[in-house]
Design a protein that fits this description.
CATH architecture of the largest domain: 3-Layer(aba) Sandwich
Strand content: 5-15%
Radius of gyration: 17 Å
CATH superfamily of the largest domain: HAD superfamily/HAD-like
Shape: elongated
Number of domains: 2
Helix content: 40-55%
Structural class: alpha/beta
CATH class of the largest domain: Alpha Beta
Distance between the termini: 20 Å
Order of helices and strands: EEHHHHEHEHEHEHEEH
């Protein structure tokens, strides 16, 4: 079992998923392009796909519809089609970023409780975590369809922290959406700089940033006032 070593509870860490823990853009691109093939539209390249990620699948499909001049009245239908394609191959090319499993193992061993707050729908989020052998690290998964609102509305993040022991902690993400969500929730934000953000690092409010997951446990300890375990 991940992180089976028992230590006193040190705090909570909630993570975004896409672009933070996992590089999922290739599988998202494949699902969108299968949908576009079905309607005879031009496919998306990977850079365009990444630029559309961050506000949940319905928004990604909306951006795709507008970019390809498709009827917006088909949004609900094409969202369902895209999700069905994605669910059939959610981990075909998706991989955790280097050092993710090791960092999560260390954080669990040091006594932190971990959660997920993602705009990806909950079922495919859980499927990705299971397919990459990451499920056991997390005590709660809040997806884009868990509530009636999505990030950057802070309600999702608040629900995630409320499900963990002793309330708030830190949020770890990669994007403008994540930074705004943490800011609106009043929660310290740690920025993973190698994900899907569109803006310069300096434009995103954050308490600390990192490019490699080997640095994350020490950063968390510093933010939360703990020395290394």
């Amino acid at each position: 079992m991940h992180g089976s070593l028992k230590r006193p509870h040190r705090g909570n860490i909630v993570f975004d998923l896409d672009g933070t823990l996992v590089d999922s853009a290739p599988d998202i691109q494949a699902a969108v392009n299968r949908m576009l093939e079905g309607v005879g539209a031009e496919l998306l390249d990977i850079a365009t796909t990444v630029s559309f990620i961050g506000n949940g699948l319905p928004k990604l499909v909306e951006r795709t519809i507008r970019a390809r001049g498709l009827p917006i009245e088909r949004h609900a239908e094409l969202t369902r089609v895209t999700l069905a394609h994605y669910n059939r191959a959610a981990t075909e090319a998706t991989r955790p970023y280097a050092g993710v499993a090791e960092a999560l193992t260390r954080l669990k061993a040091e006594g932190y409780s971990l959660g997920i707050c993602t705009n990806k729908p909950k079922a495919p989020a859980r499927s990705v975590l299971a397919g990459l052998d990451l499920s056991g690290f997390f005590d709660v998964v809040i997806g884009g369809d868990t509530l009636s609102t999505r990030k950057p509305d802070p309600a999702m993040l608040n629900v995630a922290f409320d499900a963990l022991p002793n309330g708030a902690g830190v949020y770890v993400g990669d994007s403008e959406v994540d930074a705004e969500t943490a800011h609106r929730a009043g929660i310290p934000f740690l920025l993973f700089t190698e994900g899907y953000r569109k803006s310069a690092v300096e434009e995103l409010p954050h308490q600390a940033r990192f490019a490699e997951f080997t640095a994350l446990p020490a950063l968390v300890g510093k933010i939360m006032g703990h020395s290394p375990a």
